[in-house]
Recover the amino acids of this structure.
C-alpha cells in the first residue's frame, strides 16, 4: 500500500555564508506515515524536530531529498495541510469563530457552509457558546483548542502539531491530550505530533519516533498496537476457523456419545441438545423464564452497583468508616450465598424481590473493592498539584479521584454483571415461581438432561451479551485510558527507516 506521507533521504543543512562551517539540522532520514496514523516524534532540544515539521508543512525547503503527501511532492505551503504551532497564534482582533474560519477566508471556501462545520467542531472540543468571544477571554487550553479547530476546519489531509501543549500547565495539558485523542478517534486524520514528553507521545501515538541529537536522525521507533487493531482478528478467515473448531468439537462430542452408547440421562448428544433448544424456543418455553431471570439480574446488578459504589466511596474517603464498617462487610461476604439463599427466600418470598436481593448481594463486593482501590490509586503528585491550586476535597474527588478510579470501577462492573446473573440463578434454584434457574431445577427432577443443557446454553449466551454491553460502555467511558487504546508495544526497531 502506498504511504500517505513519505520522506526519502531528506536532509536539511542551514548554510552560513561568509562563516566557517554549515549547520546540519536534519537527516538524512527516510520516513513513511500511513493514512489515519497518529505519529509522535520525541527527541532532545535542537535535534531538528521542528525543522522536520516545517519541511513537511512546506515552510522551508529540504536541502536534499523529497517529502511527499498523497503521491505529490511537498514543494511549498499547501492547502491540504493543517498546522498547529507551539502557541495558539490567534489574531486578537478576530473572534473565536473568525479565527477558526481564517483558512476558509484565505482559501475562499464559502463562509456560510463552513461556518456550520466550524461551529460543530467548536462544540466537539467543548467551545460551544464561545464563538463570539475573543482570544483574551479564553484560557490557554481553550485558545489551543481553537487553534486545533482552525487547523481542522478545512479538512486537511495531514495535521502537523509542533509541541502544541508545551506551554500549558500539567492538568490542562492532560486534559488537552484527552481532547486531542477524542478528536483524532472521531476524525482519523493523519497526524505528526512533536513533543518533548515521552508519556504524551506513547499515550497519543500509534508509532513513536526517537531522534538523535543534531543532526536529527532516527535513533529508534516503536510501533504501538492499538486495541482497535485487534479487530483485524475478526476477519472472515478467522471467523471461519473459529466456526470450524466449534463444529469439530461438537462432532467429536456427538461421535463419542454414539460410539460409547452413553445414556441420554447422563450425557446427551449435541443433536439432542439442539433439538431441545429448538423446541423450547419455538414452543415459547424459555421466554417467560428468560424475562424473569433478566429482570432479577439487571435490577440486582443496579441495586448492588449503587450499594457498592456508595460503600466503596465512604470506606475509601473516611478512615473511621473503614475501621468500623469494612470488617463487617468482609465477614458478611465470607458467608456463602448459597447458604443465605433459603433465608432470603423466606424473608422476601418466592417472587422477584428475593432474586433481586440475592443478585445484589453477590454482585456488590467485587465492585466495592474495585471502587476502594480505584479511589485510593490517584498519584500523589496529582493530588499535590490539586492541593497547590487550593482545590477543596470535593473538587479533588470529582476532578481527580473519581475519573482516576473509572478503569477500576468499570472492571468491577464487568465482574458484578456476571455475578448478578449467578446470584439470580442461585436464588431461582432454591425457590421461584419463574426463571431459568427454576427451569433447570424442574428439568433435573424429570431427568430431562438435554433440556438442562439447552437452558445452560441460553444462560451462556445471555452472560456473553451482558458482558459485551459492559465492555461497550467501558470503551465509551474510558476512551482516554491508555489500556483501552494500546494492547501492547513491540520492541523498538533500530535503524534509519520506518
Amino acid at each position: 500500500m502506498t504511504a500517505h506521507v513519505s520522506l526519502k533521504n531528506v536532509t536539511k543543512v542551514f548554510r552560513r555564508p561568509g562563516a566557517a562551517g554549515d549547520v546540519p539540522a536534519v537527516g538524512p532520514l527516510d520516513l513513511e506515515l500511513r493514512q489515519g496514523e497518529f505519529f509522535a516524534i520525541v527527541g532532545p532540544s535542537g535535534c531538528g524536530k521542528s525543522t522536520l515539521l516545517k519541511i513537511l508543512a512546506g515552510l522551508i525547503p529540504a536541502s536534499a531529498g523529497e517529502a511527499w503527501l498523497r503521491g505529490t511532492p511537498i514543494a511549498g505551503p499547501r492547502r491540504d495541510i493543517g498546522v498547529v504551532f507551539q502557541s495558539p497564534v490567534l489574531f486578537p482582533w478576530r473572534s473565536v469563530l473568525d479565527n477558526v474560519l481564517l483558512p476558509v477566508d484565505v482559501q475562499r471556501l464559502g463562509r456560510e457552509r463552513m461556518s456550520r462545520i466550524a461551529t460543530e467542531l467548536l462544540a466537539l472540543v467543548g467551545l460551544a457558546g464561545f464563538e463570539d468571544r475573543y482570544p483574551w477571554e479564553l484560557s490557554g487550553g481553550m485558545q489551543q483548542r481553537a487553534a486545533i479547530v482552525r487547523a481542522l476546519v478545512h479538512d486537511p489531509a495531514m495535521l502537523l502539531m509542533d509541541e502544541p501543549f508545551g506551554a500549558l500547565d500539567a492538568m490542562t495539558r492532560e486534559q488537552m491530550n484527552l481532547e486531542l485523542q477524542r478528536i483524532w478517534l472521531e476524525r482519523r486524520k493523519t497526524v505528526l505530533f512533536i513533543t518533548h514528553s515521552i508519556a504524551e507521545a506513547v499515550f497519543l501515538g500509534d508509532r513513536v519516533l526517537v531522534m538523535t541529537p543534531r543532526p536529527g536522525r532516527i535513533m529508534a521507533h516503536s510501533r504501538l498496537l492499538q486495541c482497535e487493531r485487534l479487530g483485524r482478528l475478526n476477519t472472515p478467515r478467522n471467523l471461519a476457523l473459529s466456526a470450524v473448531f466449534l463444529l469439530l468439537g461438537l462432532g467429536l462430542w456427538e461421535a463419542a456419545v454414539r460410539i460409547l452408547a452413553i445414556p441420554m440421562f447422563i450425557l446427551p448428544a449435541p443433536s439432542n441438545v439442539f433439538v431441545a433448544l429448538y423446541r423450547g424456543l419455538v414452543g415459547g418455553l424459555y421466554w417467560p423464564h428468560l424475562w424473569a431471570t433478566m429482570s432479577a439480574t439487571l435490577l440486582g446488578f443496579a441495586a448492588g452497583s449503587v450499594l457498592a459504589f456508595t460503600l466503596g466511596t465512604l470506606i475509601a474517603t473516611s478512615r473511621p468508616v473503614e475501621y468500623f464498617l469494612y470488617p463487617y462487610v468482609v465477614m458478611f461476604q465470607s458467608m456463602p450465598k448459597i447458604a443465605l439463599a433459603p433465608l432470603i427466600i423466606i424473608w422476601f418470598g418466592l417472587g422477584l424481590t428475593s432474586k433481586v436481593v440475592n443478585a445484589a448481594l453477590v454482585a456488590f463486593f467485587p465492585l466495592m473493592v474495585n471502587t476502594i482501590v480505584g479511589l485510593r490509586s490517584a498519584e500523589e503528585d496529582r493530588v499535590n498539584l490539586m492541593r497547590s491550586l487550593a482545590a477543596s476535597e470535593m473538587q479533588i474527588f470529582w476532578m481527580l479521584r473519581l475519573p482516576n478510579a473509572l478503569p477500576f470501577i468499570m472492571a468491577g462492573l464487568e465482574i458484578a454483571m456476571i455475578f448478578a446473573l449467578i446470584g439470580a440463578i442461585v436464588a431461582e434454584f432454591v425457590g421461584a415461581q419463574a426463571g431459568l434457574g427454576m427451569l433447570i431445577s424442574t428439568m433435573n427432577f424429570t431427568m430431562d438432561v438435554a433440556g438442562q443443557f439447552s437452558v445452560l446454553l441460553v444462560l451462556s449466551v445471555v452472560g456473553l451479551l451482558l458482558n459485551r454491553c459492559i465492555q461497550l460502555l467501558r470503551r465509551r467511558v474510558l476512551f482516554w485510558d491508555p489500556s483501552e487504546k494500546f494492547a501492547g508495544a513491540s520492541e523498538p526497531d533500530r535503524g534509519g527507516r520506518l
In short: The domain at 5-224+489-494 is CATH 3.40.50.300 (Rossmann fold). The chain has 18 helices and twelve strands. The two ends are 14 Å apart (CA to CA).
